[in-house]
Structures are given as C-alpha cells and as structure tokens.
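Bug #77: duplicate submission created two jobs. Keeping one. Sequence:
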Amino acid sequence: MELVIALAVVLVLAFFVIGTYNRLVTLRQRVKEAWADIDVQLKRRHDLIPNLIETVKGYAAHESKVFEAVTQARASAVSAGATGPAGRAQAENALSGTLRSLFAVAENYPQLQAVQEFKDLSENLTATEDKIAFARRFHNGNVRDYNTALETFPTNLFASMFSFSPEVYFELADAAERENPQVKF
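Kept job's structure:
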C-alpha cells in the first residue's frame, strides 16, 4: 500500500513538472510569435516609407533635412533587426518620430493632400502604424504572462532549473515620445 501511495505521489509530481515545463515553453513561444508579428509589421512599414518619401519629395523638394532624417532613421531601424527587442524598439521609436515630421511637411502642401498615391500611401502607413501598436500590445501582454509565470511559486523553482529567463517589454526609450506631437509652421 505504501508503495502505491509513493508511486502515486511521484506520478503526480512528474505530471506537475511536465505540465509546468510545457506551459513555460508554450508561453515562451507565444512571446517569440508576438515579436515576429511586430517584425512583420515593421517590415511593411520599412517597405512603405521609401515610396512615401518619393511622393512627398516631388512636392517639397526644399525639405531635404526631413527626407534625410527619415531615410537615416529607416536605415537604422532596418539594421537594428538583430539587436533584440530593446535596440529594435529604440530604432523604431526614432523612426516614428521622423515620420511625424514627414507628415507635418506633407500637411503644409495642400496640393499633395489631393494626390491619390499620397493618400493611399499615407493610409497604408497609418494602418501599419495601428497594426504595429496592436502587435506591441500583444507582445507585451505575452511577455507579462510569461514573466508572471516565471515569477510565481512553485513555477519559479522549475523555471530556474530549466534555464527559462524573463523576456523584455517593447517600451518607449524616450519619455518625450509619450507626449503628443506638436505641428508648428
């Protein structure tokens, strides 16, 4: 009888460890998937930006500083792909800031607002920005769930034993980016 009880306890414990491990693996994969979703939307943004710049350039040739800043920020964001979430977030946040200046320039040219190609590109870019924001929230939600699972008892005992480590949130690096942009002419 004692052997049966001991075997039952060992089996319950084994199922618990296996279930905990599998849950952590699932949560970690969700975080990776969420990051990949952000990556897809950022790639779309990077593909749209050159077309948008070329369209605006035709109407605002003397605004070269803005175009150079957006182009450089885009190049930095593309090259930051291998730096991980923190480096990538910083580069993408810089790109978002330069895009605001590009749209401010575009708003200064009413004839540009009437061009269908510009309208289509800006609507696509706006939709992409919305998707990026959603993907960031989705990623951060998955990071929260994963990190919470890593820190709660008794999962934390097994997490450290199996070398699970916390993930990083996608955050704004500069507090000024949390403020509303001001467009001045």
